[in-house]
Amino acid sequence: MEEKVRFTEKKIDQSWKETVAREKGEPPAEPASNPSLTLATFFSSLGVQTLMHLGELPYPETQEHRLDLEAAKETIDLLILLEAKTKGNRTEEEDKLLKDLLPELQMKFVAKVSA
Questions:
Q1: Among the four residues 60, 75, 87, 112, which has the most C-beta atoms within 10 Å?
Q2: CA 112 to chain centre
């Protein structure tokens, strides 16, 4: 009776490299697949979405200015969550972006709710 030999893919844990880099104070490595996709661009895109929901910018599909306070609140809450979850893993640029972006969006939201 012939036995089938099963080969499994060897999995290598690369997370130790990130730990060492973090301990040295080096910024986290950006994914090589798409250099334009960074945490800063993600934060910025969420900021733009919030401005669209607040009626400050037009929606690209229709060029309409629409007010959707619930969607704006959810997007701001998402940015707050990301701020907490990425603390200690952001670059100076990303820190500054969030420090400037969040209060501005929150003030615009309060102004729309108060109007």
A1: 75
A2: 24
Mean pLDDT by 10 residues, the chain (115 residues): 59 66 71 73 96 95 95 97 95 94 97 94
| CB contact at 8 A, 83 and 98 | yes
Pair 76, 50: CB distance under 8 Å? yes
Count Cβ atoms within 10 A of the Cβ of residue 28 and give its class: 0-12 exposed, 13-18 middle, 19 or more buried.
middle
Amino acid letter, 111: A
A 10 A CB-CB count for 78 gives 13
* pTM attached to this predicted model: 0.69
